[in-house]
Each structure stands twice: as structure tokens, then as C-alpha cells.
Write a structure and sequence with these properties.
The chain is 44% helix and 13% strand. With 363 residues, it is α/β, with parallel strands linked by helices.
Length: 363
């Protein structure tokens, strides 16, 4: 079971995801990386020397089973980088988290319709209202709102998502033993119970230290196809997220506001530098090229997990773009009759639909 090795590595506070990923990429297997001889580790080019020595020393006393069991006794779920369910968008960034610890139902969220909303912790009424108006335009759809569960714009973003029957993902800068800020305790619980998921890359015991907030911002933008900045002063965490969004090749959008508001300085700088201006949900949809679906049209997540082997292969093949009948035969190796029966079954389950040119796409 590889999970215990990922968890053990991520439980060492001095190690970051970059170090763990470098180990994994070098050995191609996390168990082999964890058990590597000290001499092997010291020969890896570019591996941080100090962190290598800390790892060698710490693993002598780590109890793999206890470290993993502690997470499960807290009711926390784990998703590791080598898991096929690891979010595709997050996997593409330069420094993806080695582990995702979460509470709630991450896979009730449509990870192909994620958009982040971030901004000032001391947001104005107008800034909050702008976020509410845009998110309300997505009401009862499969769009998932991602934010950082901080005060201000983050909290409003999550609350607006829940109020409009949307799923939401809160990315926090600590382990799940902590609720920060404490005033968001109810919001954490609402998200975990029915609204989506609260996630983190940090082992449960890690505190919400100052340097972890900029680190978690790459996950907020990395999970999302685009990021909307609501309010941001000339120096703010939201601008860090904006820069990460651009580095990751995602869409950057800004909500305009009064020029007399000091929290708009960063926003107008981003707009001058080429960020897209959005004043409605439709603006966001147009920029991202999305057609929204009502919740009633979204395939039941249980039906996806119950697919047989060939159905899963087909569902994965058409993830990015529609495929033709002949293309599917070539990839799956099925006969025409087998493929036809399989496609018909998936259509009846409401998972796929046929488009012009005898092509099939996800619904």
C-alpha cells in the first residue's frame, strides 16, 4: 500500500512537495524512494542536501502505520499523487502537492468546471456584492467554486456557492486539525457535510503558519481553469494567486470597482497588464468557453464509479474531446457490436451523447 509512504513523507514538516516529487520522479515508485539507501539519496542531483539529511534521520523513528492511522482516525481522506483520481488540472502545475488530505466529498465536485474566486480579507461591501452577483449567475449548475476559506472574499465566495446550490472546494493553509480563522467553523462544517470538500496538502498536525498561505495559493489556482480576483491591494495574497494563475497558463479575470477603493489598486494593475474584466457570470463562461448545465443534467457520480472496464476506458478517452466510432474501436480493441452495445448502455445511463459526425462526448 503506497499511501503510507506518501503520508509518512508529508508528515515531516521540513520536507515540501517539491522534495517529495523529486524523490518520486527519480525512483519512479514512492516505496522505493522512501526505502532508498542514504548513499543513493545523496547521489541524486539537485536534491536539497539539508532536507535529505533531515529525511534520513526522521524516517528512523517514523512509524508508517501509526502515521497513516492517525489521519484516518481523524476522519480525513487521502489522495496521493500516484492515484488515478488525482485532479488532472492540479497534476499539470510545476509543483503539485504530494498528498491531498480532505474532508467532505471531493468527487461530488465537477473538477472539469472549477473556477477560483480570491481577494482581500478586508473586502468592501461592493467587493463582496460583486462576487455574490457573479456566483449567483451560476445557480443550480455544475460549476465548482474554489477559494481559500479565509475571511473576506474567500468566505463570501464559499457562502455564495452554497447559497446557490453549487459545490465548493476550500483550500486551507494548515492541517485539518485546525480551523482558521476560527470564525469560519460553521462554514467549514457546511462544506464538509454537503457542499463539497475542504482540502490541504498539509499533514493534520501542521499549524497555519504565515509562509503556508502563499504556498497554498498555487493549489487554489492550480485546481481551477481560471481565477477571478475581486479586490486586491497593491501588495496582497490575491496578487500572488494572480501571478500563479498566469504561470500555470490559466485564465485571469478581475471584477472592477471604485477607483477610490485602495483594494482596487492591484485589480486595475492586472487589468492594465491584460487580465480580462468580468462583471457577470456570462463573462466568466465566455472567457472559459463553457456551456453550463443544470444540476439535474449532471450524471450521478455513483453511475460513473459503477462503470465496467470498457466503459471506464471510453469515458476516459472522451474526457478532453469527442471521439468517433472508428477511433474508439482502434483504441479499445473492441468489435463493432461490442462497442455499439457499450455506447448504447452509456447513453442510457446519461453519461455520454452522440454528436454530429458519429462522434461521442461526455454529457
Amino acid at each position: 500500500m503506497n499511501t503510507k509512504y506518501w503520508t509518512a513523507l508529508s508528515s515531516i514538516e521540513q520536507l515540501d512537495s517539491g522534495f517529495i516529487q523529486r524523490l518520486y520522479n527519480y525512483f519512479g515508485d514512492i516505496e522505493a524512494a522512501y526505502k532508498a539507501q542514504a548513499s543513493e539519496l545523496r547521489e541524486i542531483e539537485g536534491l536539497n542536501v539539508r532536507k535529505t539529511e533531515i529525511f534520513i534521520e526522521k524516517r528512523k523513528t517514523l512509524d508508517l502505520e501509526k502515521t497513516l492511522d492517525y489521519v484516518y482516525t481523524k476522519g480525513i481522506k487521502i489522495l496521493t499523487f500516484d492515484d488515478e483520481k488525482y485532479p488532472y488540472m492540479l497534476r499539470q502545475i510545476s509543483d503539485p502537492p504530494a498528498c491531498i488530505y480532505y474532508k467532505g466529498d471531493l468527487f461530488s465536485c465537477n473538477l472539469e468546471r472549477t473556477v477560483a474566486f480570491v481577494g482581500s480579507r478586508r473586502a468592501s461591501y461592493l467587493g463582496k456584492d460583486g462576487v455574490k452577483r457573479i456566483i449567483t449567475d451560476f445557480k443550480n449548475t455544475d460549476i465548482c467554486i474554489v477559494s481559500g476559506l479565509a475571511a473576506g472574499i474567500d468566505s463570501v465566495s464559499h457562502e455564495s456557492a452554497l447559497a446557490n446550490n453549487l459545490k465548493t472546494i476550500g483550500v486551507i493553509a494548515s492541517g485539518l486539525n485546525y480551523t482558521y480563522p476560527a470564525s469560519n467553523k460553521d462554514l467549514y462544517e457546511k462544506i464538509e457535510n454537503d457542499g463539497g470538500a475542504v482540502i490541504t496538502e498539509y499533514y493534520p498536525t501542521f499549524e497555519p503558519l504565515k509562509f503556508r498561505f502563499p504556498q497554498r495559493n498555487r493549489i487554489i489556482s492550480g485546481l481551477s481553469f481560471g481565477t477571478v480576483i475581486a479586490e486586491a491591494a497593491s501588495r496582497s495574497g490575491a496578487l500572488i494567486t494572480a501571478n500563479l494563475t498566469l504561470e500555470q497558463g490559466r485564465e485571469l479575470m478581475c471584477i472592477p470597482g471604485p477607483i477610490s477603493n485602495s483594494n482596487m489598486e492591484g485589480v486595475y494593475k492586472l487589468l492594465k497588464d491584460g487580465a480580462s474584466m468580468v462583471t457577470s457570470g456570462n463573462d466568466v463562461l465566455n472567457i472559459l468557453g463553457w456551456e453550463i448545465k443544470s444540476v439535474a443534467q449532471i450524471p450521478n457520480s455513483n453511475s460513473v464509479t459503477e462503470l465496467d472496464m470498457y466503459e471506464k476506458i471510453i469515458f476516459d478517452i472522451i474526457k478532453v474531446e469527442p471521439k468517433g466510432f472508428d477511433e474508439l474501436i482502434a483504441v479499445t480493441g473492441m468489435t463493432s457490436d461490442e462497442l455499439l452495445i457499450c455506447l448504447t448502455g452509456m447513453e442510457l445511463k446519461g453519461l455520454i451523447e452522440q454528436t454530429a459526425g458519429d462522434r461521442y462526448k461526455r454529457k
